Amino acid sequence: MAVRHRVIKKSPREVWEVLSDAARYADWVVGTSRAEPDEGQWPELGAALRYEIKFGPISLHNRTVVRRSEPPTVLELEADSGPLGTARIAMELRPWGEHTLIIFDEHPLRGAGGALHNGLLEVAQQVRNRAMLGRLARLCEGDEDPADATPERLRPRRT
């Protein structure tokens, strides 16, 4: 199970504003391009986005549906990758002093993704989710435009 934590130097309400902006989805979700609303008002229960994920020459056309939404603390999504199956993505935003501790939990839910899930895929997912939370933090904190981030800039900052 890929669970990651990250402190974001903004309040939970400010982090929620970014998560609830469908137009910014592709800015922080690694590999995502051309995200657009599909149904409902993001991130209300049942709302959906359609988008493309690119891995080199491979493109997947995916859809993500909001399964639970409790502003500004809980957002749970089901990402549908067609033949690869679905994944549950849960984000919990906890106050951490004046900042936010985001707990990001992603794991296969249905289909081939669950059957093929193994340690190697878990490591790849952890790397992707670490980069994704870094992009989200930079977007929330206003440090840079994560869409312009290079691999060098995605490395964690040492303080």
Briefly characterize the structure.
By secondary structure, the protein is an alpha+beta fold. The chain has helices spanning 12-19, 25-28, 112-116, 119-141, 151-154; strands at 2-8, 32-39, 48-55, 58-70, 74-80, 86-96, 99-110. The longest helix has 23 residues, at 119-141.
Q: Count of DSSP helices?
A: 5
User: What's the alpha carbon Rg, rounded to whole Å?
Assistant: 15 Å
Biggest sheet statistics: 7 strands, antiparallel
- For the record, give the distance between the C-alpha atoms at the N and C termini, rounded to a whole number: 28 Å
Shape: globular
Mean pLDDT: 85
Estimate the helix proportion, in percent.
25-40%
Helix and strand pattern: EHHEEEEEEHHH
| DSSP strand count | 7
Which strand-content bin applies to the residues? 35-45%
Physical arrangement of strands within the biggest beta sheet: 1-7-6-5-4-3-2
Low-confidence stretches: 149-159
Secondary structure class reads alpha+beta
Fold and architecture overview:
The protein is an alpha+beta fold and 159 residues long. Helix content is 28%, strand content 42%. A hairpin with a 2-residue loop joins β6 (86-96) and β7 (99-110). It is globular, with a radius of gyration of 15 Å. The two termini are 28 Å apart.
